[in-house]
Structures are given as structure tokens and as C-alpha cells.
Amino acid sequence: MRHHLRPALVRCLLLAALAVLPAARGADLNGIGQAELERLKGVGPSLSDRIVAQRALQPFEGWTDLIRRVPGIGPHGAKRLAAQGLTVAGEAYAPMSAASGSSAASAR
Questions:
Q1: Mean pLDDT of each 10-residue bin along the chain, 108 residues long
Q2: What pLDDT is stored for residue 25 in this prediction?
Q3: Domain range holding 59?
Q4: Is 27 a member of any domain?
Q5: Torsion sign, CA atoms 102, 103, 104, 106
Q6: Confidence (pLDDT) at 6
Q7: What is the largest CA-CA distance in the chain?
Q8: What is the pLDDT of residue 105?
Q9: Which of these, 92, 5, 81, lies nearest to 42 by C-alpha position?
Q10: Is 88 a member of any domain?
């Protein structure tokens, strides 16, 4: 006797499959929940707590704002998050170039 899967069961199975996919593909840091943050490679409960706490004070204005406000996220961490498809305030991560870093040093 053949058993047919009910549409509701099929939907549940599809949702479960989607839940294990990387969370950030096309997601913005200001719009994803803590559980989604913790599914990102390199983000555990402690870092996600810091991100959520700072975001609750004020949404992040961009990657520079995120790096400045959240201890534990530097340029390397930002690059790793961006490689997973994450954006901040709608912008992709663009690391500071060596030229802009040297011009800042010469301005001192």
C-alpha cells in the first residue's frame, strides 16, 4: 500500500531543510534574529549577544559602525561574515584599502 505525504508534512520537511542552510545569504545584520546570527560560521552565543545588545541601542549604520561598537569583530571577522552573504545597513563589506590607511597615517 502506497502512502502519500500530506501537503502540510511536505511543507514542514521543506522548512526544516531550509533551517539548516546558511542563514546569511542575502541577509542584513540589522534584520536577522539571534538564532540566525548563531548559525553563521564564527558567531557563537557570546558574540551574538554583543551584536544584539548593540543593535538594540541603535541599528548599525554600516560595517565601520559594527566593527567600532562590537568587541570581537574586526576587519577579519567582518570579511568572514560578508563572505557568508551578510550585509550591514544594506552595504557589502569593503575593507579599508592600504592607500586610505596610509593617508590617515600621513594626516597625523
A1: 62 50 71 96 96 98 98 96 96 71 41
A2: 62
A3: 23-93
A4: yes
A5: positive
A6: 73
A7: 80
A8: 41
A9: 81
A10: yes
Q: What is the CATH number of the domain that holds 69?
A: 1.10.150.320
Residue 62 included in any domain: yes
SS3 87: strand
The answer to whether the Cα torsion of 55, 57, 62, 65 is positive or negative is negative
Can you point out the beta strands (E) in 1-108?
Answer: none
Integer distance in angstroms from the first to the last C-alpha of the chain?
80
The amino acid at 33 = G
pLDDT for the residue 26: 80
Q: What is the number of domains present in the chain?
A: 1
Q: Is the pTM of this model over 0.85?
A: no
Q: Give pairs for 97-102: CB < 8 Å, separation 24+.
A: none
- Which whole-number Å values give the CA distances from 74 to 4, 17, 71, in the listed order? 51, 32, 8
- Residue 60 in grid coordinates: 548599525
Answer whether residue 106 is part of any domain: no
